[in-house]
Amino acid sequence: MARIVIDMDNVMADLTAHYVNSYEASHGIKLDLQALHGVPEGEVLPEGLVHKLLRSAGFFRTAPVIPGSQEVIKALMEKYEVFIVSAAMEFPLSLKEKLEWLNEHFPFISWHNIVFCGSKTIVEADIMIDDYDKNLRHFKGRQLLFTAPHNVHLADYERVNNWEDVAAALGVEVPAARV
């Protein structure tokens, strides 16, 4: 059975929308998501606020789920060995919060299939789904770049824009009403 590793942030959890919503809630200013295309993730918000949010209690726990991820990951698990791999060590508060978030939104994923690490360069699998070039460039298997505003200009990878694209690329069927 082929092994797939799936990133969490901006692949399963919509951190970009979470940054924008958090900024609007605290500053009363709504940012245009289209204006963020091509902007490095750490510069999405003014004044280095992304790094403050990433170190804030509750931030990772309250991120919205990217539509279709739950249904497609369930379908993938019927055909592949699936692991969730997140480089969580830089933000120690995220460890507990990410696990709680996964348990709430993806209760069908066993703790045996969750890996929190510092660097993904040690990860070995057949397929990696990630939004970051730094994680994909050293990966030796099939590399699927999940579209996020910070990576729209990258062209070196097989791109998937959403979970419907993931299902099609990996040959799993999910009823259209569920994705």
Automatic annotation (TrEMBL):
A Pfam family annotated for this UniProt entry: NT5C
**UniProt-listed Gene3D superfamilies:** Deoxyribonucleotidase, domain 2 (1.10.40.40), HAD superfamily/HAD-like (3.40.50.1000)
Q: Which domain of life is it from?
A: Bacteria
Which family is this protein grouped under? Belongs to the 5'(3')-deoxyribonucleotidase family.
Protein name per UniProt:
5'(3')-deoxyribonucleotidase
